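Q: Please design a sequence for this.
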């Protein structure tokens, strides 16, 4: 917290019928804290200005995910994104996406009725591509969009309750897996998430670059995107600790 202290010397000059005006003078020292834009009164890592702008008070917990988009309030502050906006961007042609937290209505058709998505929507289950009838926040989904772009915005009251607050689990099956994550751990690097499993998991993880229409190597995992991960030898349970 940065505080700038100002010294005000206030000289009160009182004039009364009995005393000459210059005979009463008082010095008062006043200190004031002036916001520089980086003030963080509740010391939670999010500045007062930012919290007040988005929430109107300082009452939000840094670790919570107010809008349910998979990023904590603190992570949204650090990324300079809107902590009250859960939006999923779709682009023309193929998109490899996921949902961080499920909408109450998980059926695909109502969710996409207002945008020009060409059915079916695909996901990957037990080593084959299958059409999806519902979304799963821990799976990647392929969606083909005929428009230039579209945004799916999910309001907070349209979301299901979060699935675990401190950690959540997913299972990698032997072979290829098309996964996503529901909440971003503090350390989202792939080597950290799959730590101690290096012997079993091919360390290269792929995601889809919609701009160039090709796969690219991923270094970190983010919600709202799908990732291909390959387990060489066996089914592997993965626990993701959000606070790690
Ligand atoms: Ca704060
Ligand atoms: Ca969020
Ligand atoms: Ca957000």
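A: Design:
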């Amino acid at each position: 917290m940065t505080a700038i202290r100002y010294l005000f010397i206030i000289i009160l000059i009182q004039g009364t019928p009995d005393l000459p005006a210059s005979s009463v003078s008082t010095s008062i020292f006043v200190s004031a804290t002036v916001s520089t834009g980086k003030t963080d009164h509740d010391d939670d890592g999010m500045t007062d200005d930012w919290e007040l702008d988005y929430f109107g008070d300082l009452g939000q917990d840094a670790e919570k995910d107010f809008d349910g988009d998979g990023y904590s309030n603190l992570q949204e502050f650090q990324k300079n994104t809107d902590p009250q906006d859960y939006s999923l961007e779709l682009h023309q042609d193929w998109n490899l996406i996921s949902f961080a937290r499920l909408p109450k209505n998980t059926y695909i058709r109502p969710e996409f009725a207002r945008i020009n998505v060409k059915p079916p929507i695909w996901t990957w289950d037990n080593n084959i591509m299958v059409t999806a009838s519902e979304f799963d926040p821990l799976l990647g989904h392929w969606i083909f969009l005929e428009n230039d772009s579209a945004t799916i915005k999910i309001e907070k009251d349209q979301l299901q309750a979060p699935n675990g607050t401190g950690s959540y689990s997913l299972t990698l099956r032997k072979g290829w897996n098309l996964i996503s994550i529901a909440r971003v751990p503090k350390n989202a690097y792939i080597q950290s998430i799959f730590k101690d499993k290096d012997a079993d998991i091919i360390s290269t993880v792929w995601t889809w670059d919609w701009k160039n229409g090709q796969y690219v190597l991923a270094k970190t995992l983010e919600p709202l995107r799908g990732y291909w991960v390959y387990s060489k030898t066996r089914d592997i349970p993965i626990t993701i600790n959000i606070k790690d």
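Q: Thanks. Anything notable?
A: The pocket of calcium ion (ligand 2) is lined by residues 65-67, 69, 71, 76, 83 (CB under 6 Å). The radius of gyration is 26 Å.
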